[in-house]
Design brief:
CATH architecture: Alpha-Beta Barrel
Radius of gyration: 16 Å
CATH topology: TIM Barrel
CATH class: Alpha Beta
Strand content: 15-25%
Distance between the termini: 31 Å
Length: 200
Amino acid sequence: MKYCGNIQEVARLPIDYLGFIFYEKSPRYVGDMNLSDCDIPPHIVKTGVFVDETVEKMNVCIKKYRLDAVQLHGSEKPDLCREMQKSGVKIIKAFSIEGKEDLALCEHYSDVCDYFLFDTKTSKHGGSGVKFDWNILLHYQGKTPFFLSGGIGVADAEYIRSFAHPACYGVDVNSRFETQPALKNIALLKQFIQTLNSEL
């Protein structure tokens, strides 16, 4: 997210997290926007997304934007995650998944992260708009809860409802709900959330 009016519209939906990308090469880079002007309800977790950034830079952003969580989407090591825990924010570490062997890396982060995020493996940082085989996650037996991510669109809501994994904490959506980078389609989000939350 990076457009204040759109942020406020999304924030009125029954959501729990909003993501703000601080990776300058991303078309969704927040730039110098002032989040305090956007009147984000306090229950929504403001999450800064970073790629191989320094602890010092992330801490500056945490203070400036009053972030509640950081999502680490690069090749960050467990030691950096441990250092970021001192900042008092939730730590979400993203992992690129192509096969079950990719899940082995998670073991080194279980004590230094609050959540994992499983996304589609791609040569670029960030989302590809493509889904990976979610059945791979049936091999995940860790205790750290995770966000399901990677090319999720409106049509996936029904399948997600039947995706029974005890560690699946939430769903991360992005590009399939955009009219342009960082501008979300409210109608599509409403449809997705309604289907996701409807009675089984």
